[in-house]
Amino acid sequence: MQNRKNLFGIQESNQEDSGKYLYIMISKTSNRLSRLIRKFGKVHYSHAAISLHSNMKPLYAFARPRHHSVFLAGLIQEKYERYTYFAEGLPVPIMIFRIPVSPEAYDKVSESIELMENNPEYMYNLFSMLLFPVKKGFQTNRSFTCIEYAVYLLELAGYPLEKHYSKYTPDDLPEFLKDYIYYQGDIRDIEYEKDENWEPDYFKPISITLIKDSFVAVVRIMYRTIFKRK
Q: What is the pLDDT of residues 122-150, one digit of tens each?
């Protein structure tokens, strides 16, 4: 395990070699939704994100693009400030896994991200998340939770899974990927370039358009959950 202070900032000359890697980060964030996920899902880590680069930029996750757009979540690029904003000085534990992949697998993962990023056809697997305490996750067509997508990419990259990707939680990864732990600690202990303009953009107020689009998204994901699980 490498405890590198500048993982998100200045690149070290010896940090990369000629190989290709997939980086997965799990985290314990402090916003309301994350606390609910940990409480009812009985997990320690509540979120997963992915990157193809050692400085974790860009960082991708199936998440909401705006604070009030819970039902419009999809594959987006995340801002690191979102991890610390609600923590109020408390630590934000993260764990990063650095997983070697073949060039062909790397390209497959990159193509998947390019296909799904900000693509409304790929939705957040809302009911898999909400019903996890009872159903323990389930696949829905063109839909993922944050951890489902991270593990899906592992499978896409050629790693054999012990169960279906929809059955994993972030808490499963420290054991499943124990040989690939790259960093563990508080995200605040890592230097990274801050985005001073992230807050106004992320906290745009609720609008009629947002309410309408959210209602349509709920209907769409409900239909997929009932009629198009696979």
A: 999 999 988 887 788 899 999 999 999 99
CA 79, 83, 55 angle in degrees (round to 5)?
55
Report pTM: 0.87
Residues 94, 84: Cα–Cα separation, whole Å? 11
User: How many helices and strands in the chain, by DSSP H and E?
Assistant: 9, 8
CA distance 29 to 35: 8
In sequence order, the 6+-apart residues with CB closer than 8 A to the CB of 160 are none
Closest of 129, 126, 147 to residue 214, by C-alpha: 126
How far is residue 105's CA from residue 82's CA, in Å, rounded to a whole number? 30
Please say whether the beta carbons of 182 and 99 come within 8 A.
no
Q: Where are the alpha helices (DSSP H) in 81-191?
A: 81-84, 103-116, 126-130, 132-135, 146-156, 173-176
